[in-house]
Amino acid sequence: MAKYFDVHPDNPQPRSIGQVVDILRGDGLIAYPTDSCFALGAQLGNKEGMDRIRSIRNLDDRHHFTLVCQNFAQLGQFVIINNAVFRAIKASTPGSYTFILPATKEVPRRLLHPKKKTVGVRIPNHVAAQALLAELGEPMLSSTLLLPGEEEPLTQGWQIKDELDHVLDAVIDSGDCGVEPTTVVDFSTDEPEVVRVGAGDPSRFE
Questions:
Q1: Which of 178, 182, 174 is CA-nearest to residue 142?
Q2: Rounded distance, CA 204 to CA 39, Å?
Q3: How large is the average pLDDT for residues 184-195?
Q4: DSSP alpha helices (H): ranges in the chain?
Q5: Which of 129, 151, 164, 194 is the most buried (most CB within 10 A)?
């Protein structure tokens, strides 16, 4: 059964955040709110967590997992960014964007796109998500909580607890969060390509 944490949207309780991070460090899988919608999260080195996300979402091996980072400095450790891309991403973070970029050697091989050797990265603009990342001290392996056959992600913490109680270890609820997934921008080639239009304004990359 998943533990349910009702955290304050503006001042998340440190004790609750600490308990969730302990679950992550114990190879747990969580559902947590972001500025775009709820997401699934696991610790970076948690292979079983990645497999559980694949199973819940019915994903194939071409799916880009996302490293959710606390800040730009952390993001820069895990992806290769040239000057032009640096400026474009810096101006759009934190925010509802996921960027696909060539990965550095810091990223576990199993998280990379099998052919492109790329990975998704993002910096959320959400108080509870930022509190989690600050306490964890490293990026979180993440994927939008969009169930197979559904067009929209789950948006209520209690509903997620109800439907996924048997496959999650914790659910963080901090009230309303977005209903759209992030806008995804692929920077792995010469020209940026908007591959999914979501919560972030895509016009700055088109």
A1: 182
A2: 25
A3: 92
A4: 14-25, 47-57, 72-75, 83-90, 127-136, 157-164
A5: 129
Mean pLDDT value across residues 175-201 = 91
pLDDT reported for residue 55: 96
**What's the confidence (pLDDT) of residue 62?**
77
Region for residue 117 given its phi and psi (left: phi exceeds 0; alpha: psi -120 to 50; beta: otherwise):
left
Q: Which domains does the chain have, with CATH numbers?
A: 3-196 (3.90.870.10)
Each residue of 80-136: pLDDT tens digit?
Answer: 999 989 999 999 999 999 999 999 999 998 888 888 899 999 999 999 999 999 999
Q: In angstroms, what CA-CA distances link 55 with 37, 178, 187?
A: 20, 24, 28
Tell me: the pLDDT tens digits for 36-64? 999 999 999 999 999 999 999 999 877 88
